[in-house]
């Protein structure tokens, strides 16, 4: 996502860029790279935790309080910072409280001794993404309306078949030709033949 977004910056000539993507592109490292390049990303976070599916509180139900560097749980308890470790190159901070054993909501929270929350060192960047999504919940619908019909049209034009060529280089060429044909048809539909020919001669 970061690579394509930076190409978008170059193509448009705008350093400050807003990017909409679907949840399949969610990656903390990619979002951080976009943020560092001045690109504001909006995309939903995949719900990979089994807690929500099992009817328990998810991480999103715990509120981070930056000044105290603690999390407030749904029962109002404060989960304090305990230690930091590194997993798969990510620096992660761990939080929990010892008040879980006497909590009336424990059954809705965790089957473990206490509920632990993990915070990435750049979690604030991901929280900014969520705030943008909360402020514009229709953004993803806009992305679908803008992008998905393109793929539908391409599939319709090619038919329900596999690529006719083999090997990555050949398939990439075949796909590029399909996209070029689509773009030309769109330009003709939007601008008309006269303007397109004028632009081609320039």
Protein model, in words:
By secondary structure, the chain is of the alpha+beta class. Among the domains are: 1-46 and 122-136, no CATH class; 50-121, no CATH class. It is 45% helix and 18% strand. The chain contains seven helices and seven strands; from the N terminus they run H-E-H-E-H-E-E-E-E-E-H-H-H-H. The protein has helices at residues 2-12, 28-36, 50-53, 123-135, 139-158, 168-191, 193-201; strands at residues 17-20, 39-42, 63-65, 70-72, 78-87, 90-96, 116-120. It has a five-stranded antiparallel beta sheet, with no helix packed on it. A two-stranded parallel sheet has the order 1-2. A hairpin with a 4-residue loop joins strand 3 and strand 4 (70-72). Helix 6 crosses helix 7. It starts with a helix and ends with a helix. The mean pLDDT is 89. Pfam families: DDE_Tnp_1_6. Residues 73-187 form the Transposase DDE domain. This is Transposase DDE domain-containing protein.
Brief rundown of the structure:
The protein has 202 residues and is α+β, with helices and mostly antiparallel strands. It has seven helices and seven strands, in the order αβαβαβββββαααα.
């Amino acid at each position: 996502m970061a690579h394509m977004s930076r190409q978008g910056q170059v193509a448009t000539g705008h350093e400050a860029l807003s990017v909409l993507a679907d949840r399949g592109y969610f990656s903390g490292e990619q979002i951080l790279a976009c943020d560092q390049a001045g690109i504001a990303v909006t995309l939903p976070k995949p719900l990979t935790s089994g807690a929500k599916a099992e009817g328990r509180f998810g991480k999103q139900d715990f509120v981070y309080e930056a000044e105290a560097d603690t999390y407030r749980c749904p029962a109002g308890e404060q989960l304090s910072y305990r230690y930091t470790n590194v997993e798969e190159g990510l620096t992660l901070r761990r939080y929990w409280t010892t008040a879980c054993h006497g909590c009336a909501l424990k059954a809705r929270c965790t089957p473990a001794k206490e509920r632990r929350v993990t915070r990435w060192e750049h979690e604030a960047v991901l929280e900014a993404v969520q705030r943008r999504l909360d402020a514009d919940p229709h953004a993803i619908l806009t992305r679908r309306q803008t992008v998905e019909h393109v793929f539908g049209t391409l599939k319709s034009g090619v038919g329900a078949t596999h690529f006719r060529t083999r090997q990555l280089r050949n398939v990439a060429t075949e796909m590029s030709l399909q996209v070029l044909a689509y773009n030309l048809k769109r330009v003709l539909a939007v601008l008309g033949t006269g303007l397109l020919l004028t632009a081609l001669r320039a």
